[in-house]
Amino acid sequence: MSSHADQSANADAGESATPVQGHLVFVGLPGAGKSTIGRAVAKALGRPFLDFDQEIEKRSGMSVSRLFAEKGEPAFRALEIELTRELALGSHMVLAPGGGWVTNAGVVEMVRPPGRLVHLRISPDAALRRLTRSRVVRPLLKGADPRSTIHQLWVNRAHLYAQSDVDINVEVLDSQQVVDKIVLLARGLTTGLG
After folding, report:
1. Which residues pair with 167 in a beta bridge?
2. Which pTM was predicted?
3. Nearest 10 degrees: Cα torsion 12, 18, 24, 29
4. Which of 141, 20, 33, 43 has the alpha carbon at shortest distance from 96?
5. Of 71, 117, 138, 194, which one is least surrounded by beta carbons within 10 A?
6. Residue boundaries of the structural domains of the chain
């Protein structure tokens, strides 16, 4: 189960903690801030950052929306698995896969250990509010009832997100506070990720 960063970041700094030696992988619903937070954490840690959606678009020559429309979700998920396999043994990076990455059998085991998963927890309603303000089109939310869809995504994925090494509620902290907590955890300056 996940440990909760809200509690972990407040843990006694004297406790034994170890820096993250593998990839730091952000998971969560669309709109949780995986790419935004991931980029900032990577910069602070001096690690390379990779947004899976952008990399898949670059490699395929298609937008994620077009991939979903023309080849279907299974084809997109296969590309996520292929990319994960490729990155699994590479140098330590900060990774932001899509929200459904955790539904791919075996991907978590490819990166962990030594990598660590960070769940950026957000309620479906808050995620939808963020997404309606975003310019990025999310293929799984293009239907007639995006609210119902994102709630169903949460129902289907919550147990997978719960297997993360740390859980941070991004609704109660601003982006910089989230980044700061994760950087401390990743550097092993407090318990929760080691």
Report:
1. 4, 119
2. 0.83
3. -30
4. 33
5. 71
6. 19-186
The two tokens of residue 150 are 């994102």
The DSSP output letter for 115 is: S
Inter-axis angle of helices 175-186 and 34-45, nearest 10: 50
SS3 content of the chain, % helix, strand, coil (to 5): 50, 10, 40
Helix (H, G, I), strand (E, B) or coil at 190: coil
Q: What is the pLDDT along the chain (194 residues), one digit of tens a residue?
A: 444 444 333 333 333 355 667 899 999 999 899 999 999 999 999 999 999 999 999 999 999 989 988 999 899 999 999 999 999 888 889 999 988 999 999 999 999 888 899 999 999 999 988 887 766 666 656 767 888 989 999 999 999 999 999 999 999 999 999 999 999 988 875 555 44
Helical spans, DSSP H, in the chain: 5-8, 34-45, 52-60, 64-71, 73-87, 107-111, 124-133, 146-161, 175-186
- If you ran DSSP here, which 8-state letter would residue 2 be given? P
Residue linked to tokens 């506070």? 177
Cβ count within 10 A of residue 147? 11
**Amino acid, res. 27:** V
Mutual angle of helices 124-133 and 146-161, in 10-degree steps: 120
